[in-house]
Amino acid sequence: MEESSLSRAPSRGGVNFLNVARTYIPNTKVECHYTLPPGTMPSASDWIGIFKPATCPNQEPNSTSSGM
Questions:
Q1: Handedness of CA 18, 20, 25, 27 (dihedral sign)
Q2: Which of 10, 11, 12, 36 is found 20 to 30 A from 58 (Cα to Cα)?
Q3: Which Gene3D superfamilies does the annotation name (predicted)?
Q4: Which 3 state secondary structure label does DSSP give 66?
């Protein structure tokens, strides 16, 4: 993955996803880096999902989070 193909995904609930690639190769390891707003307490029930744009909830980019 080239550095120029990486970007920052739009914030959702204050969570910022870093180094988000425009595409990913199926069946390969994906690393997810993100920052949380100050004072945010993570929970064991938090999750991150990566979807194809056509199937992504609310027509958002390739990443989303829940419970944060």
A1: positive
A2: 36
A3: 2.60.40.2840
A4: strand
∠ CA 15-20-5, nearest 5°, is 150
Q: What are the residues facing 17 on neighbouring strands?
A: 34
Q: Which amino acid is at 12?
A: R
Residues 6+ apart with CB under 8 A from 21: 1, 5, 6, 7
Q: Any idea where the domains of the chain sit in the sequence?
A: 3-66
What is the token pair recorded at 35? 């920052």
Predicted confidence band of residue 4 (pLDDT cuts 50, 70, 90):
very low
